[in-house]
Amino acid sequence: MGSTKEHLAPPNHDGYSPDKLPLNPFEQAESMYFGVMGTFRKAAFNWRLMAFGLFFLNLVVTGAFAYETTKIKVVPVFFEKDSSGRVELMDIEKNRTPTQRQIEHFLEEFVDKTRSITRDDVENRKKWEKVYTYLQDSAANRMDVYTTNDKTFDRWGKELCSVNIKVVAPVTENTYQVRWREQVFGIDGRLKDSYNMTALFTVDIIPGKTLSEVKGNPYGISIKDFSWRREQ
C-alpha cells in the first residue's frame, strides 16, 4: 500500500506535476512581457549585428575601389589621316614615339606661340599658359631670361608681330633647327620692323601620366633646352 502522501497527492494527468502549478494572472502577464521583450532584444541584436556587418563590408568595398582607382592608367587614342585621306586609329601605347614630322609641327606651333603677338591680350595670355607646360626646368629658366630681355609682355597692346616659319630641320637625333621671319607692326597696322630668326631646340619624349597632361601634349614632346637669336 502506498503512503498517505501518495494518496493525498493530486493525480498526475497530462504531464501535470506539483512543480508546474498554474500561474496567477500577474505571473502570466509578467512571463508574456519578458517573453516578448526577449524576442525584441534578440531581433534588435540581430539587426545591429547585420548593420555592423554591412558597415564593415562597405568599408572594404570602398577601400578596394579607391585602391583600384589609383591603378587606373590613361591610354590615349588618336585618329590620324594617311596619305589617301583615310582615317586610321592610332593607339599611343603602340606608337609612343612621335614621328619627325610630328616633332617639327610641334616646334612650329611652339615658335608661333612664343613669338607672335595678336591684338587680343586674352589670346596672348592663353598661348603663354601653354608654353611653360612644354618646358623642362632649365628651358623654363632660359625662357624667363628671354622674355625679360625682349620685354615680351610689355609689348602686348602696343604692337603686333607675325611669324612665318621657313625651315624646321633635324640637326641631331633630338635637336632641331627652326628658322622663321618676323614682321612687327604698330597698332595702326604700319610695318615697324622685319627680320629673320633662327633657333635650336633639344627635345625629350616624356609621355603624360594624367588625362590633362595627355590632352595638353598628346605625344609628350618636352623641350629640354633651346636658344634663339636674330639673324644678321
UniProtKB/TrEMBL annotation:
<keyword id="KW-0472">Membrane</keyword>
<keyword id="KW-1133">Transmembrane helix</keyword>
<feature type="region of interest" description="Disordered">
    <location>
        <begin position="1"/>
        <end position="21"/>
    </location>
</feature>
<dbReference type="Pfam" id="PF04335">
    <property type="entry name" value="VirB8"/>
</dbReference>
<keyword id="KW-0614">Plasmid</keyword>
<protein>
    <submittedName>
        <fullName>VirB8 protein</fullName>
    </submittedName>
</protein>
<keyword id="KW-0812">Transmembrane</keyword>
<feature type="transmembrane region" description="Helical">
    <location>
        <begin position="47"/>
        <end position="67"/>
    </location>
</feature>
<feature type="domain" description="Bacterial virulence protein VirB8">
    <location>
        <begin position="29"/>
        <end position="231"/>
    </location>
</feature>
<dbReference type="InterPro" id="IPR007430">
    <property type="entry name" value="VirB8"/>
</dbReference>
<dbReference type="GO" id="GO:0016020">
    <property type="term" value="C:membrane"/>
</dbReference>
<dbReference type="InterPro" id="IPR032710">
    <property type="entry name" value="NTF2-like_dom_sf"/>
</dbReference>
<dbReference type="InterPro" id="IPR035658">
    <property type="entry name" value="TrbF"/>
</dbReference>
